[in-house]
Amino acid sequence: MSRVLVVGSVAFDSVETPFGQVEEALGGSALYFSNSASHFAGVDLVAVVGEDFPEEPIEKLKAKGVDTSGLYRAEGETFRWKGKYGYDLDDPDTLDTQLNVFGDFSPDLPDDYRDSEFVFLANIAPELQMEVLDQVDDPKFVALDTMNFWIDSKRDELVEALERVDMLVINESEARQLADDANIVQAADTIREMGPQMLAIKRGEYGALVFTPEGKFFAPAYPLEEVYDPTGAGDTFAGGLIGYLAGRGEVSETRIRQASVIGGVMASFCVEEFSLGGLDGLTDEMIARRFEKFERLVDFKTIDTLEE
């Protein structure tokens, strides 16, 4: 079993949706990813928090097999984000962003992390993502996430980073923006020409489209009766996907397809509660049961040949 290295943010989120709200809840890409991936592989976490960040969630991470040697505590306050969702839960309005110590974040990998085989570069500036890759010796599989802000403001740096990764994890609107193409299949082809031979396009409540050199795969989202908070769902999806691959130590077409469904399973738990509530207390048995539900969701028989 391989471990997976994640570099990203740890934050306090204040979130309002039509179904409730929370203030100063745990969040951040690295936190969601680690809580998800730790069910399938060991995780090495690199991020920064402020003096105000409590010890309890760090101890919980350690209990889940997450190595926090790369979680640095800096003088100042932890990164904060405040957002509000309407009934379109895919598109939040950002009300406030306070980078605080995250604004000076410069990833410095502990020596034990530099031989990581599986790497996830969460949504941080592309030049920082490349700094991480400069410190990793010979990774087997590298995935990168990004967002519209970096596509707009640091496109050249992002394209340079994409040349060095195996998979891009991105949402549908960002894929169209990056490729400058409204057709999602053509956009995927354009992005793959930039470097990553695999592409996972997140489509919110409609699942994900996954592109590999062998073809295309649709991973559904599970239809839930209650969805409270989509914050972190994309990073939770990535955690399930990449954590599963790392746990198997194998990147193949079959494993990518299985991992993509696992990502959807983990994201479905995430959105059922605010913050990390949907991932707390999650057991292997609960994950396996929902995976079986995903299987039944898309199970169908081949029809008889139609004849005139």
Care to describe what's here?
With 308 residues, this protein is an alpha/beta fold. The protein has one domain: UDP-N-acetylmuramoyl-L-alanine:D-glutamate ligase (3-Layer(aba) Sandwich). Helix content is 35%, strand content 24%. It has helices at residues 29-37, 56-63, 126-135, 148-153, 155-162, 172-179, 184-193, 233-248, 253-270, 284-298; strands at residues 4-7, 11-17, 20-27, 43-49, 66-73, 79-84, 93-98, 118-121, 141-145, 167-171, 198-202, 208-212, 215-219. It has a 9-stranded mixed beta sheet, sandwiched between helices. Strands 3-2-6-7 form a 4-stranded mixed beta sheet. Strand 11 and strand 12 form a beta hairpin. Helix 1 (29-37) crosses helix 8 and helix 3 (126-135) runs parallel beside helix 5. The chain is globular, with a radius of gyration of 19 Å. The mean pLDDT is 94.
